Amino acid sequence: MDLSRAAAEALDAADPLAGFRARFAGTAEDGPDRLLYLDGNSLGRMPLATPAALTRVVEREWAEGLVGSWSEWIGTAARVGDALGSGVLGAAPGQVLVGDSTTVNLYKLLAAAAAARPDRDVLVCTADDFPTDRYVVAGVAEARGMTVREIEADIDEGLDLDVLAAALDERVAVVVLSLVAYRSGALADVAEVTRLVHEAGALLLWDLSHAVGAVPVDLDASGADLAVGCTYKYLNGGPGAPAFLYVRRDLQDELRSPIQGWFGQRDQFAMGPRYVPAEGIERFGVGTPPVLGMAAVEVGAGLVAEAGIDALAAKGRALTDLVVALGDEWLLPAGMALASPRDANRRGAHVTFAHPRAWQLTQALLARRVVPDFRTPDRVRLGPAPLYTRFVDVWDAMARFRDVLADGSYETFPAERARVT
């Protein structure tokens, strides 16, 4: 592999997605000291079309239309959900709903799924999954008198299928797993995981937060039961953007949301005395949808759909291959260790390196205008988003990383880690 900067420039020149970069804020800056943003897997850049979309809602639909605009807004959660499903998630209409947070959606689907398996009393998750997932699993288990079976997953390589298989039996009601591990980027084997869980008679709930918009998901084709995910990472919906949930069509009538809000009511404007769940995916609605947030999600998801998830995934693999190759050349000899799967087909669109001074290294990189992410216990995470990150951006960021390690400047930063949000 040619690791010269000229080779990175050549890859950019041949990139079929290169034109999307100019459609995001902050990408016009160029030059040797420009900001190099490698944290798109935490918060995506803002699409340039987003302010106009928000302005339309604020100045026309709200300011002028007032309450009459609810005729447009009332079905937005399902409409944007359908667009996200068909354009990004591989889901036919009527199975995706946008609204609430990932945590709330995870709770709704997990509680509903557990209640649908009353003869089973075990929930399965991994000990290294994202904290909110583990917390929700523990809370649902406690409330229902169930047991949590936390299985080990390698912090760098992800879930071992033999370990998962050993944890599955007739007591397991629901398995909760992340498609892409938040620390290492390890990618789960969708087909094999689904087969194992279904053979055990359990339901499978995927967290797609670090996957959606970066790797192919194909919910319908994979036989997925349930899924949730956020929209502010690779979908570029903005901070606090509403999340989404997916419920396979044939499961919808079987499951009942534990939060009986009026947007999940069959005839919500009848204002009836008792709750009767709506038909279809809308039964998983709760309260008034975040109209402004959904307008931003629609823009970001539209860009991903336009680019095509297969093209994005291919570029994501190429970008992270370059990160790994430059890491081998420049970082590992200086004491770093690769903390992600080496095989691009086994990881999502981010790469992690381990070092005892990872927190200080992260601060030193920020001072050099490289934006990575720190993850406990000692990881520096690099997330080049394929919609707007160039190969030369990766090359320059890794060169600055090399220089920080070489000159020891990271040692001047405090070793204590402040609170990270």
Keywords:
alpha/beta
If you had to describe this structure to a student in words, what would you say it looks like?
There is one protein chain. The longest helix has 23 residues, at 309-331. This protein starts with a helix and ends in a 14-residue tail after the last helix. Strands 2-8-7-6-5-3-4 form a seven-stranded mixed beta sheet, with helices on both faces. Strands 9-10-13-12 form a four-stranded antiparallel beta sheet. A two-stranded parallel ribbon has the order 1-11. 37% of the residues lie in helices and 12% in strands. The chain is α/β, with parallel strands linked by helices and 421 residues long. The protein has 13 helices and 13 strands. Helix 8 (190-199) links the parallel strand 5 and strand 6 (203-207).
